Amino acid sequence: MRQNRKVAAPSLAERLGGIKKTTRTDFLTYLGVTIVFLVMLSLQGQGMLTNSLSGQLVPICCYIVMAVSLNLVVGVSGELSLGHAGFMSVGAFTGVIAAQSLQTAIPAAGLRLLAAILVGVVFAAAAGVIIGVPVLRLRGDYLAIVTLAFGEIIKELINCLIVGWDERGLHILFNIKGTMSVNDLGLSENGIAIIKGAQGATITRISSFPAGYLLIMVTLIVVLNLMRSRSGRAIMAVRDNRIAAEATGISVMKYKLMAFVVSAALAGGAGALYGLNFSTLVSSKFDFNTSILVLVFVVLGGIGNIWGSVISAAVLTVLPELLREFDTYRMLVYAIVLILVMLVTNNEWLRQLPERVRARLAERKGGERP
Predict the structure, then answer these.
(1) Which of 77, 105, 239, 252 is the most exposed place for a label (fewest CB within 10 A)?
(2) Residue 192 bridge partners (DSSP)
C-alpha cells in the first residue's frame, strides 16, 4: 500500500537560498533599514536619545536619500555631478511654498508633507531635465564644473525670490535689483510671507522621522529596481564602454538623462523633507559644501555601493555631533576618521579579507565531512 509521506516545509534559509543573490541583497537592505528605524523609534519614544541626536534623525534620513540618489549618477551612470545640492534646494523651497500655501486646504500635517514632497520631486525633476539635456553632452571635468555652476546659480536665484500667499493665491516677485520687499507683494491682511529673499523662508515644521524612513524606502526601491532593470543595465553599459554601447544601439543620451533626472527628483524629495524640518530656511544651507559633503558620503561608502551610501551618510552625519564635546579637536578627529576610512576602503588586501575568510571556512567545513 502506498503511504502518504509528509514533506517538511522549507526553512527560511532554504527559501532565501533559492532567491537570486541580488534580490536577497536588496531584501536584506530593506530589512536592515527597517530594523534600525524601529530601534531608533523605540529609543526616541522611551526618551533614551539626547535632544541633539533626536534632532538629527530627519537630516540623517535626508542625507541618506541624497547619498543614494547621487550614487545613481556617480556610481551607476559614471558621471561626476557637483550640483546635487542645487536640486535639493529646488525641492526644499518649492516644497516649503506648497506646504505653507496649503495650510487651509489641507489641515492634516502628514498629507500636507506628502503634497510638499511630491511638489519638490516634480520641480526638481523638471530642473533635472532642463539642466541635463545640455549638460550631459559634456564629459568628465566639464560636466562637474557646469553642475557646480548650476548649484550656485540656483542659490542666487532663491536669494532674489520673494513669495507670499493669501486668499487670492500665490504672489511671486524676483528682486533682481534689490529694491523690492515683502510689502511689494500686495498681500491681504490674512496673507503670509513665505520667502523673503535673502532672509530666507519662514516655515511651520511638519517633518517627522517616520516620513524620513518612508522616503528612504521609496528611494531604495526606486534605485535598486532601476539598477536591476533593463534600463539599469543599459546605464551601466554606457558607463563601462560608451562606444560599445552606442554600437549596439543603446541611446547614450536617453539613459544618462534617465539616471540624472531620477537622481534629481529624489534629491528634490529629500530637500522638501529637509526644509520642512526647520523654522527658517536660507539658500546658504545648499551651497557647494553640501554637494561635496554628499559626494564624500558616496565615495566613502563605495561608488556604486548603495548599502555603503546608507551607512556612510548616517555615520558621518552623526559623527560631528558625537565629537562635539571634544570642541577644538572635533573636526581634526573627523578628518582623521575620513582619511582612515579612505585608506581601508581602497586597500585591496582588506577588501578581499571577507572573501578569504569565507573560503577558509568553506575549506574547513569540507575537511570535516567524512
Answers:
(1) 105
(2) 165
